[in-house]
Give the backbone structure.
Amino acid sequence: MSPMAGRQLKEIFRAFQTRDELAFRRAAMEIIEEEQAKHHNALARDLHKLLVGGTPQVDVGATIVVPAPPKDREGEWDLGEVREPERLLDDLVLDKRLMTVLDTMIEEVRQWSALDSAGIPRRQRLLLQGPPGCGKTSAAEAVAAELGRPFLLVRLDAVVSSYLGETASNLRRILEYASQAPFVVLFDEFDSLGRSRDDASEHGEMKRVVTAFLQMTDNYRGPSLLLSATNHPGLLDEALWRRFDEVLTFATPTVHQIRQLLRLRLKRVPHSGIAIDTYASALKGLPHAAAEKLVLDARRHALLRGSPSVADDDMRSALPGVTGRPW
Ligand SMILES: Nc1ncnc2c1ncn2[C@@H]1O[C@H](COP(=O)(O)OP(=O)(O)O)[C@@H](O)[C@H]1O
Ligand SMILES: [Mg+2]
């Protein structure tokens, strides 16, 4: 073997060991170019096809290009959605303890290779639980943004097929995809995996799918952070909780947190004379999403009456529509 090929092989092995996707691609491209230079055109073409996966690429921001997400077996719909994350943790109002846990997790992901070298297991599979509208999906996106990673949103209700074998194969396809680049993956609506059918025998089958999913993530050694979110923690079997490295609990906001969120959402909007405390109290017990909707509805109301600024009247008009609907 030529010394050149030896060096490239070492680089590619090292890149695998440190899960350095870019280094891997660099070394692989070098090998392809060299084969081309030797006029091994068919081999070069095959290697290139393998490297890009033969799939179209998605541009998720200025610096990162990843292959397009996998489709279901018939190739009809995407199993996940890749996004350039925009939301930051600063856009969220969370209790201090949860914020600290998220900050720690972010720092930990940055230090994965150091943890690997020290033989300390990574915390790579987290469960986010709590009522709807309290920031689980937003927090996952924010973690991706803070890490500068693309965000892969997998809506499990869409992945769950009426054929159970199909569901498992869809999940496997997503995890293989998440091995190709460092994503933050969110398996959203995680409980849809375990959602029971009327038929008792089907229920057993669905439980097997949840178990299969957890086994697949147990064995996952790729570069992505795997998050799962559920609005219905009660639907999950207790034994399943232990299978996650960490469980993060999201809760409905306190009146103080609602006030904070109203201020945050009004910060960049011209407004005057709004009795924030009144609205914070009126929204007591409702999720963050309700406070956000109140501000948006009030802004809409102001705009429609031709006012450049949001007034207390706009908030008052919007309130019944927010408190009067189910959350
Ligand atoms: N903790 C929070 N802080 C600020 N905004 C929030 C928070 N939780 C939810 N929201 C807002 O409510 C909407 C729904 O939130 P989402 O993250 O989808 O909630 P969940 O996934 O828990 O159902 C989003 O537009 C988001 O901006
Ligand atoms: Mg959600």
Observations:
- Residues 255-323 form a domain with the Helicase, Ruva Protein; domain 3 fold (CATH 1.10.8.60).
- The chain has a mean pLDDT of 87.
